[in-house]
Design brief:
Number of helices: 11
Structural class: alpha+beta
Strand order of the largest sheet: 3-4-2-1-14-13
Radius of gyration: 27 Å
Strand content: 15-25%
Distance between the termini: 95 Å
Length: 350
Amino acid sequence: MAQQAYMTETDSGGSGPERRTTRLRRLLDRLGRGWRGDRRVWRRGLVLAACAVLLSLVMLAHAHIPNRVGSLGSLIETFLPWLGLFVPLLLLLALLRRSATALIATVLPVAVWLNLFGGLLTDKTAAGGDLTVVTHNVNAQNPDPSGTARDVAASGADVLALEELRASEVPTYERALAPTYKYHAVVGTVGLWSKYPLSDVRSVDIRLGWERAMRATVTAPAGRVAVYVAHLPSVRVKLEAGFTARQRDKSADALGEAISGERLENIVLLGDLNGTMNDRALKAVTSQLRSTQGAVGSGFGFSWPASSPMARIDQIMVKGAEPKSSWTLPATASDHLPVAARVEITTPEG
């Protein structure tokens, strides 16, 4: 009898997963009672529902937001993926307001965001490729140029592009990279280092009045590749002027014109474009070339600022050559992260 009583007492108390399940069910029932029978559940939260619809429209029609005032369209497009952070906030507010209308409306921005960026959440890396390329804005104020050079050389890149080279530090980079790269060329504030021969090196005029872009032919074992290195002008966000990017936009147009006249079929663009692939101001470039990160990367590949990356403004883009993988490299002493890609030369040229 004593043993039977003990067993009965233990069973009635419950334990472990069964108790946790019971508590969860009670919580859900409590929440449900707050909604059931509430006739205002559909009338409340109309403002929240309107906000959800507006958020969806901004993401869906971002290309139609005018740039005339403060380059507002480009500003939104630069940080477009981050608009998704408003979705959990809207969801929380909808729950607090106990609004079924707002909850259902929140589904719309979720669907739009996934349509725009859901593909970036999967790893699209493929095996293969015969040329590894890296680009890095080394920062003119870099406190450790030698260490930065060694870090990017250790990436295994066959072709390495550096931007924002300070003239006084160029010899430092040359010495640090000489053991890895037999060939190199520097034009203004950009440079190209390669394990394979370089030819037809020339400056590319991006309408700045000084040199921040170049072009060279890399003769790799798989064929010749036209490699462009560019550092487009910086943009600023000012309260009185908005997103100031006029000079950047003009330089992007000039770079696009130069690329459109390229005769080689394999083209690789490396550089700091001070803009994302979503920014319509870079259309002269992005309409001709594919982003390696968008095609075969994993995640957003944000590269700036290095301490807490919020946007991918450092780009590797290709035409002719087939991207196989794309990734960001560990931080150096720069305020940008290096970015890398593996590509396959699909149309060999002797």
